[in-house]
From TrEMBL:
Superkingdom of the organism of origin: Bacteria
Taxonomic source organism: Enterovirga rhinocerotis
Record-given protein name: Uncharacterized protein
UniProt feature, compositional bias: Low complexity: 56-67
Record's compositionally biased regions (Basic and acidic residues): 42-55
Annotated region described as Disordered, given as residue ranges: 39-67
């Protein structure tokens, strides 16, 4: 099984039964069906998720002590 992102509306038979796919869906389908859909331009590999890290907190400014 493989996860793909649908790039255009189409119908297919991933498990022997008719199924409608809509643009933008992210679905898990059998490997051979994924290869076929990608090859025909109906789907693509989803982009890997980029984890957002919070910005590190700024260190407090050092005060200069004047004698």
């Amino acid at each position: 099984m493989r996860v793909v992102k649908i790039t255009e509306d189409f119908t297919g038979y991933p498990s022997g039964r008719k199924r409608a796919f809509e643009k933008g869906q992210v679905v898990e389908v059998p490997d051979d069906f994924a290869d076929l859909a990608i090859g025909k331009g109906h789907a693509k590999e989803p982009e890997p998720k980029v984890e957002e890290r919070p910005a590190p907190e700024a260190a407090p400014a050092k005060r200069s002590v004047r004698p």
